[in-house]
Amino acid sequence: MNVMLYDVLQGRRETLTHFTEPANLVDITWSHDGQWIVFVSTHDFIHGCGNERNVFRMRSDGSQLEMLTGQYVDPADVPAPYGLLRGRVVDGQGECLVCAQGAHVAEVKDDGAFQLPGVPLSATWARAVCRDGEDIRQGEVDLTAEEGEFLPVTIPVQPEGQGWYQVSLSRDGGTLAGVFYQWTLDDDGGREYAYQGMLYDIGDGRQRRLELPEERILRGVDWCPVSDRLVGALSDEEGTALWLWDAERKALAPLVEVPNPEGEIVVATDPVWSPDGSRIAFALRHRYWWEEDKYRTDIMVVTADGEQLTPLVESAWGDVASHPSWSADGEEIVYQLSTGEPDVPHGERETGDIWSVQVLSPTPVPLTKDGQSYLPALRPLPSR
């Protein structure tokens, strides 16, 4: 999957990235000034510390692509001196790769031993990733250099992982807010996920957790375009809600709450402010609790004071309308319409297209008909 710039009026598409990893994109948005595209991807993840999915930023023409998270350092920009890192990967299975901050990737031998040349002596971490079919094991260690040489390291790997799930950029462009996940294996060998809200300072790399109400799961956040507030989608056993936070990560109050209807489970996701901060659009999942394969996801709109909760797009059972994005004038919303389980990765769904709907005259119309288009994000400001 790659990021495409699509001129709706002229029907012209431009490919901005040239990634080779399948289904690597999970979220995409714009900076509030319309100058940067910000997205979450598994692309080149071994060059980031710990994360399977990192946050990237690039200009609207595809230039200045950079990984913002994961303590990333471009190997091409790291000055000398360099050293040789020796070590061993423990408990790896299948093909194992090892990398260090600011260095290229090396393969690990069958006995777990590796040599990684050209590691800058300023590097602070090394990581190993092993894959054997669906089995993935990962691990990281800190590095120590003495008298111009690295001390040998041992990197234990385990079946666990973490990364970014969704992200939003603050008005001043200096802080990321998003959903961060961690997974481990349960007793049956399946992945068990935990989600938390995270603020990330782009300047110094500092991470801070977002205050969450107890027993609630975060499903997406968005910075307000006119004030330093966040809106987030939360869910628990009783239903779902939109909450507000201030810039200091403190939870303020629920904005709107949607209890579970009889026989259904509802989950709010993908909240996004309108450009003037007067309304919020979000996706609302419905699932019959006694029928696992019966579900749908609608697009909802609510005013910024929590009033006038209105369905804008009501999907048929089996359809998933998600990832709403506002036009610059606030009169239109584009969204992704697909079939398949709501949590199935993009690119593995049966279909995917981008649709548009006028907020005051909600008759959805398709913008693409290729079955392979996902994650729409309208530019906040007209191109200059």
Work out the helicity level: under 10%
Query: DSSP helix count?
Result: 0
Average pLDDT confidence is 90
Residue share in β-strands: over 45%
Distance from N terminus to C terminus (CA atoms, Å) equals 27 Å
Number of strands: 31
Characterize the main sheet.
Answer: 8 strands, mixed
Radius of gyration of CA atoms, rounded to a whole number? 22 Å
Structural class label: mainly beta
Low-confidence stretches: none
Per the principal axes of the C-alpha atoms, what is the gross shape? globular
Q: Please, could you describe this protein's structure?
A:
The protein is globular. The chain is mainly β and 384 residues long. It has no helices and 31 strands. The strands form eight sheets. Strands 3, 4, 5, 6, 16, 17, 18 and 19 form an eight-stranded mixed beta sheet that branches. A four-stranded antiparallel beta sheet has the order 9-8-11-12, with no helix packed on it.
